[in-house]
Specification:
- The protein folds into two domains: 91 residues; 120 residues, no CATH class.
- The protein has 233 residues and is α/β, with parallel strands linked by helices.
- The chain has three helices and eight strands, in the order αβββββββαβα.
- The longest helix is centred in the first third of the chain and has 39 residues.
- The chain is 30% helix and 24% strand.
Length: 233
C-alpha cells in the first residue's frame, strides 16, 4: 500500500497561511485587550477607594476629587435616553463655579425620570448654595446618538450625547475638560448611577480569544486533512 504524501497545493497553502495568521493574531489581540481591561478595572477600583483630593490641572480621568464653590442652575444640560432599571430618563449636568479658580466644571448630579411627554421636561430646579462636592472624574465618549439634532435650543438643554467636546460648545466660557460624577451625599444629588469604566469585561475578551484560537486549530486540522486526502489514490 502506497503511503500518502502531504501535498495540499499552492492555493490552499496560501489560503491557510493567510487565515492562520489572521486567526492567531486576533486571538493574541483579544488577550491583550483582556489584560488591559483588567488593569483598567484594577486602577478604577483603587481610585474609588481613595480619599478625594482637591481638583487641580493635574487631575485625570477616574481620580476621586472634590471642589468647593457654587452651583449655576441657569444652564443645565439633560443627557437624554439614559435607562435606569428599565425606565427612561435623563442624566443632569449642572455647571459649578469653583471658588478658588472661578473655573466652571460640569457636575453630573445623577439621574431623573422622564415625564410621559418628551416635550415636558422633568423639574431640575435646585438651590444655588455654596457647597463642597466630591466624586469621580470621567470623560464620556461620543457613543450612540439617536437624533441628527444633538442638542436642543432652550435651557435646560437636552443633549443626545454626553461628549464634552460637543456639550461645552453650548457655553460661552471655558469648561473644565472632565465631568465630575458627584457622590450621592451632595445636597443636590439626584439618583446615583455607578460608573461602568468599560463596556466589555476581561472575561469576554478572553472568551473571544478562545474562539479565535479554536478557529485557528480547526483550520490547521482541515489543512492537514486536505493535504493528505487530496493525494489519496
Amino acid at each position: 500500500m502506497k503511503k500518502n504524501k502531504f501535498n495540499p497545493g499552492v492555493r490552499i497553502s496560501i489560503f491557510f497561511v493567510f487565515f492562520a495568521i489572521v486567526f492567531f493574531s486576533l486571538g493574541l489581540w483579544q488577550i491583550e485587550r483582556g489584560q488591559s481591561k483588567t488593569d483598567l478595572l484594577k486602577e478604577f477600583k483603587n481610585n474609588t477607594l481613595q480619599e478625594p483630593n482637591y481638583l487641580t490641572e493635574a487631575s485625570k480621568k477616574w481620580d476621586r476629587v472634590f471642589v468647593e464653590g457654587k452651583w449655576d442652575s441657569s444652564q443645565q444640560m439633560l443627557i437624554d435616553n439614559v435607562i435606569n432599571r428599565g425606565v427612561a430618563g435623563y442624566k443632569v449636568l449642572t455647571p459649578f463655579r469653583i471658588a478658588e479658580t472661578n473655573e466652571v466644571i460640569l457636575i453630573d448630579r445623577g439621574w431623573i425620570k422622564g415625564n410621559k411627554s418628551r416635550d415636558d421636561l422633568p423639574n431640575v430646579n435646585m438651590v444655588e448654595t455654596f457647597e463642597k462636592v466630591s466624586g469621580i472624574l470621567e470623560y464620556p465618549e461620543l457613543g450612540l446618538v439617536l437624533s441628527d439634532e444633538l442638542i436642543s435650543d432652550a435651557w435646560p438643554k437636552v443633549s443626545q450625547t454626553k461628549n464634552l467636546e460637543i456639550i461645552t460648545k453650548e457655553y460661552n466660557e471655558k469648561i473644565y475638560p472632565l465631568i465630575l460624577l458627584a457622590d450621592p451625599t451632595s445636597k443636590n444629588s439626584l439618583e446615583y448611577i455607578k460608573i461602568n469604566p468599560t463596556n466589555m469585561t476581561p472575561v469576554k475578551h478572553y472568551g473571544y480569544s478562545a474562539q479565535w484560537f479554536l478557529m485557528f486549530i480547526v483550520l490547521c486540522v482541515m489543512y492537514v486533512w486536505f493535504g493528505f486526502k487530496k493525494n489519496e489514490k
